[in-house]
Amino acid sequence: MKKIEAIISPSRLHDVKDELAMIGVTGATVAEVHGVVRPGHVQLYRGAEYAIDTVPQVELEIVVPDELVSSVVATIRGIASADRNGDGRIFITPLEDVIRIRTGEHGLHAL
Hints:
Elements: E1 2-8, H1 13-22, E2 29-45, E3 48-64, H2 69-80, E4 89-94
Antiparallel strand pairs: 1-3, 1-4, 2-3
Helix pairs in contact: 1-2
């Protein structure tokens, strides 16, 4: 199993979730996060300049069997990419075990 963490634009979340459901992803955790922008940029608001160094983003955490990893990554990249800075990142890490708290099931059965 692998854990896939994807940091994407909030505007792409619903499309990504819908497409992931179509390829068999049955669950995900979603959190609102802020990404640090380098080197940052300046915006004008009511005549005053403000340095913007963070942008709102969404983090998806998904646990999938090894055979679904490439499909999940391709789906996220295909939908979340707007071909500009700030499109996000995808992190993939091996996962030793998953345990469903209610039933005690382990591994893929717990997904």
